[in-house]
Amino acid sequence: QKEVEQDPGPLSVPEGAIVSLNCTYSNSAFQYFMWYRQYSRKGPELLMYTYSSGNKEDGRFTAQVDKSSKYISLFIRDSQPSDSATYLCAMREGAQKLVFGQGTRLTINP
Amino acid sequence: GAVVSQHPSWVICKSGTSVKIECRSLDFQATTMFWYRQFPKQSLMLMATSNEGSKATYEQGVEKDKFLINHASLTLSTLTVTSAHPEDSSFYICSATTTGVDYGYTFGSGTRLTVV
C-alpha cells in the first residue's frame, strides 16, 4: 500500500463546476499537507499549505484536512479552463521529504 | 514569496556528454534542496536531498556517480548528469526550503533533458 493514495483521474468537468480532489494517507505522523498545481512541462506550484485539521480557504480554493480519517481534500469553486492541470497532494512529517500522491489530471471544459 | 529559479528550462545533449542543471533560491536561503525526476504522466520521484555544505543523500536506486549534486552555497544547488544516455531523458525539477520560515517547499520550473 502506498503511503499516499490519489485518484489519477482523468477528471473532466464543465466550466463553473465545483471540483473535489482527494487524497488518503496511511502515515499518522504526517503533519503538513500541501496541494500543488502542475501545468504541462512546468514545475509544481504551491496552491495550499495546511498543518491542522479543518478548512483553509484562499479565493476559489479550499483545502480540507481530516487527520482522524487520514483524508485531505481540495475544492475548487467556479472552475475555469485555466484550472486545467495536474493536481498533486503532498505531505510530510516534520522537516522530512515530501511524499506525493500520484496526481489527478483535471480538465475544465468551456 | 519564495522563488526558485531553475536553468536551463530545456536542453538537448549528445549521448556520453555531461549536462549541468542549476537551481537558485532568489529571495531566501535554501538550507535544503531536493532534486526530483518526473516521467510523463507520472508523479515526482525524489532523487536526492542536499543540505548546504554537506554531501547529498541519495534515494535508493539513484546512481550517485551519475547524478552529481553540489550544494555549495545557500542559494545555489546544481545537478550534473554525467555521461548521459537516452534513458536519462526526463523532466528534472528542484525544490528548496529553509529553516525558520516554512514556505511549504517551493519548486523550480523544471528542466527537460533530451539525450540523443
Can you summarize this structure?
Chain A is mostly beta strands and 110 residues long.
Describe the structure.
The complex is a heterodimer of chains A (110) and B (116). Chain A is mostly beta strands and 110 residues long. Chain A has strands at residues 4-6, 11-14, 19-25, 32-38, 45-50, 54-58, 61-66, 71-76, 85-92, 99-100, 104-109. In chain A, strand 7 and strand 8 (71-76) form a beta hairpin. The N and C termini of chain A lie far apart (37 Å). Chain B is an all-beta fold and 116 residues long. In chain B, the strands form 2 sheets. In chain B, strands 2, 4, 5, 6, 9, 10 and 11 form a 7-stranded mixed sheet that branches. The termini of chain B are far apart. The A-B interface holds A 32, 34, 36, 41-46, 49, 88, 90, 92, 95, 97-98, 100-103, 105 and B 4, 6, 32, 34, 41-44, 46, 49, 91, 93, 95, 97, 99, 102-110, 112.
Largest sheet of chain A: 6 strands, mixed
Number of DSSP strand runs of chain B: 11
- Low-pLDDT stretches of chain B are none
**What is the approximate shape of chain B?**
globular
Spell out the blueprint of helices and strands:
The complex is a heterodimer of chains A (110) and B (116).
Chain A: E1 4-6, E2 11-14, E3 19-25, E4 32-38, E5 45-50, E6 54-58, E7 61-66, E8 71-76, E9 85-92, E10 99-100, E11 104-109
Parallel strand pairs in A: 2-11
Antiparallel strand pairs in A: 1-3, 3-8, 4-5, 4-9, 6-7, 7-8, 9-10, 9-11
Chain B: E1 4-7, E2 10-13, E3 19-25, E4 32-38, E5 44-51, E6 57-58, E7 67-70, E8 76-81, E9 90-97, E10 106-107, E11 111-115
Parallel strand pairs in B: 2-11
Antiparallel strand pairs in B: 1-3, 3-8, 4-5, 4-9, 5-6, 7-8, 9-10, 9-11
